[in-house]
UniProtKB/TrEMBL annotation:
The keyword Transferase applies. Keywords: Kinase, Membrane, Phosphoprotein, Transferase, Transmembrane, Transmembrane helix, Two-component regulatory system. Residues 231-284 form the PAS domain. The modification 4-aspartylphosphate is found at residues 638, 761. Residues 589-704, 713-823 form the Response regulatory domain. This is histidine kinase. It comes from the Bacteria.
Length: 834
C-alpha cells in the first residue's frame, strides 16, 4: 500500500462530526418518545382511577339521597304521631339536600347516569315530597286523623319502596362498574410499572453498553497513546542519534522539527528555526509558486531527491558544505518533506588535499616528461647519429608512451582546473568544420593500427561558432579515440556536423561497436568512470568528463544514443555565432591588439578568467575601426603592434575622443628601450611567468575599476536579522548594503544616506513598512527605486507605489539580485564612470 493509499484510508476512518451530531440528536428524541409513552400510559391509568373514584362517589350519593328521603319521612311520621313541630325541623334541610343531590345527578354524564333513571328518580322524589307535604298540611290543619289515614293508605310507603328499588339497582350497577374500572386501573398500573421497569432495563443496558464502549475507547486511546509515545521515543532517539542533520518541513516549506545533529551543524536551537522558511538556511526551492511546485513535487513524487554539494548557512553566517537528500512524508495535514543534510566539509578538505597533490605532482612531472619526449624525438630524428632499427623501434615506443603519459597528466590538470574553476576557455569565431577535419586527420594514426576508416561528412558552408578551437579539438580527439577503440577492426567511424532548428551546430561521432553497456550508461560522463574497451584495455575515465565540461562551457550539451544497426553515436551541440550566450554579451569587452598568436592566446585567456569577453585586432588600422564602432572597457596593446608599434597607437588612442576614458595597457615580451617608457600609460612587462601573469591581471582589474560604474547603495529594512545577513552577503560584491531593523532606524539613515534602491519588508514587528514609502525620495524629489521583499502578498494599491514586488519563500535571493540589477541599471548608466 502506497503512502497516498494509507493517507486516503486514514481520511476515510477519521471521526465524522455529522455522524456524531446525528447520534447526539437521536438519543434525546428516543428518550422523549419513551417519556411521552409513559406519560400517556400514566394518564390512562389515572383516568381509570378517577372513574373508579367517581363511581364510588355516585354510589354514596345514591345512598345519601335515599337516606335524606328517609330523614324527611321520619320527620313526617314523628310530627303526625306527636303533633310536635320539633319533629319537623330536619324536614326542610332534608328537602334541600335531596334537591342538591338531584341537581348533581343532572350534571352527571348520560354515560354514568342514564336519562330514564334520572327521570324516574326525580318523579318518585317529587311524588314522595308531595305526599309528605300533603300529610303534614292535613296535620297542621287539625285533621290529624285524615293525615294518618292517608299514611296508612301506603302511598308514601309505595313511593319509598320504588325509590329503594331504583336506587338499589343503580347502586348495584355502579358497584359493578366500579369493580370493573378498579380492575382496569390495577391492570393499567401494573402495565405502567412493567413498562417503566422495561425502560429502566433498556436504559441500564444502554448505559452498560456505553460504559463498555467508553472503556474500550479509553483503553484503545491509552494503548494508542502508549504506542505513539513509544514510537515517538524511538523516532526521537533515531532522529537524534543519527550523525546527519535532519529537518522536517511542513507543506508551506517552514521548519517543523530538527534533530540534535541539525542543531549542532547549524548553530540554531530547535525553537529558533521553528516555523521559519527553509530558505533561511538552505536554498532548495528557487523560483515562483508554491513550495511543493518549487521543490519539484508532482503527483506524490519528487523530481530530484538528491542535491549534491550544496551550502547551508550557519547561525554565525559561515557556509557549511552538505549533500542534501529529500524524502516525502504524507500525513493527513499534507505532504511533509524530510530533508537530510550530510556534512561533507571533511570530504571536501580531503578532495582539496588530493587535488592539490595531484596538481603538484602533475606540474612537477610535466617538465621532465617534456625533456624526455624532446630527447627521444631528437634521437629518433637522428640528431645524435643514426640508430639501429631495433633501437629506433624502442625509442619510438618510449616516445609514444611518454606522450601518452603527458596526455594523462594534461587530463588530470584539466580536471583540477575544472574543480577549481580555472579552466581557461577562449571565445573567438571559428569554423567548426576545420576543427572536425583536424580531429579526423589526427586520428588516422590510431585508426590505421586497427584498420578502421575515418569518414568525415562536412557541409560546404562554414559552420561558425564562438569557441576555443583547441578545447573543441580536445573534445573531438577524446570522442574519436573512444570510437576507434570501441569499433571492431575493419569497420568505419563517421563524423558529421549539421545545424539544428535551435541555431546550434550538432557534431556526431558514430561507431559500429558493441554499444555502451547498460550498467555503465548512467555514469559514463563521471570522473574516473571506466569501461573495458573491445580490445581489452581501459581508459583513464577522464576524457568524457572533461569533454562534458568543455561543451558545457561553450553553452552546449553532450549525450550519446544507440546507433541504428549497432554501435553508438556521441553528439554535442555548440551555439552558432548568432546565438551566443547573453551573459557573455553583457560582460565587459576588452580589445586585444596583437598579431602575435601566442601572446594573443595568453591575453585572451586572462581576459576570460577576469569575467570579460574580448575582440582581437591584429594591427592598428583594425583596432581603430573597432574603436569607431564600439566602446571597450579597456585596451591591451602589444608593444610590437604593426605598423608603427604599440606605443604610437596607444598615444593616438589617448588623444582620440572616441576612446576617452578608456584604460590602455601596453604589454611586451622584451625589455623596453631606454627613454621609451610611456609615462601616461599602464605598462606591464610581459614575461611568461605566473608572477607576471598576476601583475597583468591586477592591472586589468585596476583598469576595469576605472570604467565600471560606482557601487550603488541599497537600504534593506527587515526585522529578521538573519535574512539581513543573507541578503547582505549575496549583494555585497555588487552593492553597498545599509541595514535597518525598524522604521525609526530607517528614517534616521535616510537623513544621512541617500540610497540608490530600497529593499522593504512590509510586515515589521509592531509596525507597517508602508509607512516608510513617503520618505523614499531623493534630493530632486524623485522616488527612490523600491523593491518590496515581504512574506505576504501585497495589494495592488501598494504594488503600484513601488518598482517590484517579491514574496519571500517564493522569490529567491537570485531573483532579488536580478530585480535590483534591472531597476538600478538605468540609474547608474545616467552617471559618468568614476
Amino acid at each position: 500500500m502506497t503512502q497516498r493509499d494509507r493517507r486516503a484510508e486514514l481520511s476515510e476512518s477519521a471521526p465524522s462530526l455529522r455522524r456524531y451530531l446525528g447520534i447526539a440528536a437521536l438519543l434525546p428524541l428516543v428518550l422523549a418518545a419513551a417519556l411521552f409513552f409513559i406519560r400517556q400510559e400514566a394518564s390512562r391509568s389515572e383516568a381509570l382511577r378517577v372513574q373508579a373514584a367517581a363511581s364510588y362517589e355516585r354510589r354514596l350519593e345514591q345512598v345519601r339521597l335515599l337516606s335524606r328521603l328517609k330523614d324527611a319521612e321520619t320527620a313526617q311520621r314523628g310530627y303526625l304521631l306527636t303533633s310536635d313541630p320539633a319533629f319537623l325541623e330536619p324536614f326542610e334541610p332534608a328537602r334541600r339536600d335531596v334537591a342538591a343531590l338531584l341537581r348533581r345527578l343532572d350534571r352527571q354524564s348520560l354515560a354514568d347516569v342514564p336519562a330514564t333513571y334520572r327521570a324516574t328518580v326525580r318523579a318518585l322524589v317529587t311524588a314522595k315530597f308531595k305526599e309528605l307535604d300533603e300529610t303534614i298540611a292535613l296535620a297542621r290543619g287539625g285533621r290529624a286523623a285524615a293525615a294518618q289515614a292517608r299514611v296508612a293508605a301506603g302511598i308514601g310507603k309505595e313511593l319509598m319502596d320504588r325509590l329503594r328499588v331504583e336506587i338499589g339497582q343503580r347502586i348495584v350497577d355502579e358497584q359493578r362498574r366500579s369493580v370493573s374500572r378498579t380492575a382496569a386501573f390495577e391492570a393499567q398500573r401494573a402495565r405502567v410499572i412493567e413498562i417503566v421497569w422495561t425502560l429502566f432495563a433498556l436504559l441500564s443496558l444502554v448505559l452498560l453498553a456505553f460504559l463498555v464502549f467508553l472503556w474500550r475507547v479509553r483503553a484503545q486511546r491509552y494503548r494508542a497513546n502508549v504506542a505513539a509515545f513509544e514510537s515517538a521515543e524511538r523516532n526521537a532517539t533515531i532522529l537524534n542519534s543519527t550523525v546527519d542533520a535532519i529537518l522536517i518541513l511542513n507543506p508551506s516549506g517552514t521548519v517543523e522539527i530538527m534533530n540534535a545533529a541539525a542543531t549542532h551543524m547549524l548553530g540554531y536551537a530547535s525553537d529558533e528555526l521553528e516555523r521559519r522558511d527553509i530558505a533561511t538556511i538552505l536554498d532548495i526551492a528557487p523560483g515562483e509558486g508554491s513550495f511543493h511546485k518549487r521543490v519539484g513535487l508532482h503527483d506524490g513524487q519528487l523530481a530530484q531527491s538528491f542535491l549534491p554539494d550544496r551550502r547551508v548557512i550557519h547561525r554565525d553566517g559561515h557556509d557549511v558544505a552538505v549533500d542534501v537528500a529529500m524524502g516525502l512524508m504524507s500525513l493527513p495535514s499534507g505532504d511533509h518533506l524530510v530533508v537530510s543534510l550530510r556534512d561533507i566539509s571533511e570530504r571536501k578538505r580531503v578532495e582539496r588535499v588530493k587535488d592539490d597533490l595531484m596538481s603538484t605532482v602533475s606540474h612537477e612531472l610535466r617538465t621532465p616528461l617534456t625533456s624526455i619526449v624532446g630527447a627521444l624525438g631528437l634521437l629518433r630524428s637522428g640528431s645524435a647519429g643514426t640508430l639501429p632499427t631495433s633501437a629506433g623501434r624502442l625509442v619510438e615506443i618510449a616516445e609514444n608512451n611518454s606522450r601518452r603519459l603527458i596526455r594523462l597528466i594534461n587530463d588530470m590538470l584539466d580536471i583540477d582546473r575544472i574543480e577549481t574553476g580555472t579552466l581557461r576557455m577562449l571565445r573567438e569565431p571559428i569554423d567548426l568544420r576545420l576543427t572536425i577535419e583536424q580531429a579526423g586527420l589526427g586520428s588516422q594514426g590510431l585508426a590505421g593500427t586497427r584498420a578502421i576508416r575515418v569518414a568525415s561528412h562536412l557541409p560546404d558552408q562554414p559552420v561558425m561558432v564562438m569557441g576555443d578551437a583547441d578545447r573543441l579539438l580536445q573534445v573531438m580527439t577524446n570522442l574519436m579515440s573512444n570510437a576507434i577503440r570501441a569499433a571492431p577492426p575493419g569497420s568505419k567511424v563517421d563524423l558529421f556536423v549539421e545545424n539544428d532548428d535551435r541555431d546550434c551546430a550538432v557534431v556526431t561521432v558514430a561507431d559500429r561497436g558493441p554499444g555502451v553497456p547498460a550498467g555503465f550508461r548512467d555514469r559514463i560522463f563521471g570522473r574516473f568512470e571506466r569501461a573495458e574497451q573491445s580490445d581489452g584495455t581501459v581508459g583513464t575515465g577522464l576524457g568524457l568528463a572533461i569533454s562534458r565540461e568543455i561543451v558545457t562551457r561553450h553553452d552546449g550539451r553532450i549525450w550519446f544514443e544507440d546507433r541504428p544497426g549497432g554501435g553508438t553515436c556521441f553528439r554535442f551541440t555548440i551555439p552558432l555565432t548568432g546565438n551566443i550566450a547573453a551573459a557573455d554579451q553583457a560582460a565587459p569587452c576588452i580589445l586585444v591588439c596583437s598579431n602575435d598568436e601566442v601572446l594573443t592566446e595568453s591575453l585572451c585567456a586572462l581576459v576570460i578568467e577576469e569575467g570579460c569577453v574580448f575582440e582581437v585586432a591584429t594591427n592598428a588600422e583594425d583596432a581603430r575601426a573597432c574603436l569607431a564602432h564600439r566602446h571597450y572597457a579597456a585596451l591591451i596593446v602589444d608593444f610590437k603592434l604593426p605598423p608603427r608599434g604599440g606605443l604610437s597607437f596607444a598615444r593616438t588612442v589617448r588623444e582620440a575622443r572616441t576612446a576617452a576614458g578608456t584604460s590602455v595597457m601596453v604589454v611586451t615580451t622584451d625589455t623596453l628601450p631606454d627613454g621609451d617608457g610611456p609615462s601616461p600609460l599602464d605598462v606591464v612587462d610581459w614575461i611568461n611567468k605566473p608572477a607576471e601573469t598576476e601583475r597583468l591581471a591586477e592591472a586589468l582589474r585596476a583598469a576595469l575599476s576605472r570604467t565600471r560604474p560606482r557601487r550603488p547603495v541599497v537600504l534593506h529594512l527587515d526585522d529578521d536579522r538573519d535574512l539581513l545577513k543573507i541578503v547582505s552577503a549575496a549583494l555585497e560584491p555588487e552593492a553597498q548594503i545599509v541595514t535597518a531593523t525598524d522604521l525609526p532606524s530607517a528614517r534616521a539613515l535616510l537623513h544621512d544616506v541617500r540610497p540608490d534602491a530600497v529593499i522593504l519588508d512590509l510586515h515589521l514587528e509592531g509596525a507597517d513598512g508602508r509607512d516608510l514609502i513617503p520618505f523614499l525620495v531623493d534630493e530632486d524629489g524623485l522616488a527612490i527605486p523600491t523593491v518590496i521583499f515581504s512574506a505576504q502578498d501585497v495589494t495592488e494599491e501598494t504594488a503600484a507605489q513601488v518598482d517590484a514586488v517579491l514574496v519571500k519563500a517564493r522569490g529567491s535571493i537570485p531573483d532579488l539580485k536580478a530585480t535590483l540589477r534591472r531597476i538600478l541599471r538605468p540609474r547608474l548608466e545616467e552617471e559618468p564612470a568614476a
